[in-house]
Amino acid sequence: MAATAAVAIHQFAECITCHAWSPDQSMIAFCPNNNEVHIYKFFTDKWEKLHVLSKHDQIISGIDWSRSSNKIVTVSHDRNSYVWTQEGSDWVPTLVILKLNRAALCVQWSPKENKFAVGSGAKSVCICYYEQENNWWISKVIRKRHESSVTSLAWHPNNIYLATTSTDGKCRVFSTFIKGVDTRGSQSSTATDSKFGEQIAQLDLSSTWVFGVRWSASGKTLAYLGHNSMIYFVDEVESAPAAQNLALRDLPLRDVLFVSERTVIGVGFDCNPMIFAADETGLWSFVRFLDERKAIPSTSKASQLSEALGKLYGQSKQGTSSDSVEPSKPRGGAHENCITCIVPLTKGRDGTIKRFSTSGLDGKIVVWDLENHITIAK
Fold this sequence. Notes:
Helix content is 4%, strand content 45%. By secondary structure, it is mainly beta. The chain has two domains: 1-12 and 212-291 and 332-377, YVTN repeat-like/Quinoprotein amine dehydrogenase (Methylamine Dehydrogenase, Chain H, 7 Propeller); 55-184 and 191-204, YVTN repeat-like/Quinoprotein amine dehydrogenase (Methylamine Dehydrogenase, Chain H, 7 Propeller). The strands form seven sheets. It has a four-stranded antiparallel beta sheet, with no helix packed on it. A four-stranded antiparallel beta sheet has the order 2-3-4-5, with no helix packed on it. β3 (27-31) and β4 form a beta hairpin. The longest helix has 12 residues, at 301-312. It is globular, with a radius of gyration of 20 Å.
């Protein structure tokens, strides 16, 4: 086995807030922790900056690049959102009517790309869609459901259900059915029979802030993350939710990705992607860190204290001895600071995700290849 699954490491900036890839993955868009989006393209042997999208007034907190329509959507702390369309060699912005009085924090296109969702610090979620008559993007708002900021979003494969996480410690699932945008009967009848803004489920598994949420490709399993170093897996959310809480020995996670129905990658404050897998009975467990690092004998009192705390909470370290440094201390890995964003790249013929990219507070974008590094349980 090679030393690491990281096949490319690009230092684009001092800090990266979020990133997204073009449909053919020849270009990458990211926010270097300011009010701009930088778009780079790979030429022969190096990345070159092609565009700078500068319409926002404050830090850009979310970017998503649609696969089929080649549009970029951005949201910012300035409470605005823009949909960028490429016309010739320029990217032209269209303002989205959000009606927010607090920062927009996250954004994601729906699977059919006929709408997108924006989470905000205004305790609300905007579901945005294009209105042909007026040539603008407008939104319908899900209000009075969240008790605090909406930190992340995930669309169900049916294009109707939307999962949200919030700093009120809850994960919720809503219907986003919009008459005239979605068609009834095209998906499962229960999804299309629900009304806009109807709460399908509320999951109260965490006592702390929750970040990062994702559905599996089938939509049967939902995973989300707690700031208390927990990861939560919920099956059959709509009908009879069955939840598992998995306590981590290490630092909290910030984002999560299903690479198959039974394999998940989590990224966060440990600067090192973590692999989780479910066995034949559906029981989830931590497998190992993806970015292999050598364990260095511990000498400092701080590391001895962290080891003692870990033993106190009864979580055994897998694959390393009890006298090694906590993995939360970077030792020459691909990332050197918190990973905040994980984006899927290529899929195999069996539908599993073989490659993904991560970005973080160290300003790096790292491309990871799972081929020959882990056995992906389908």
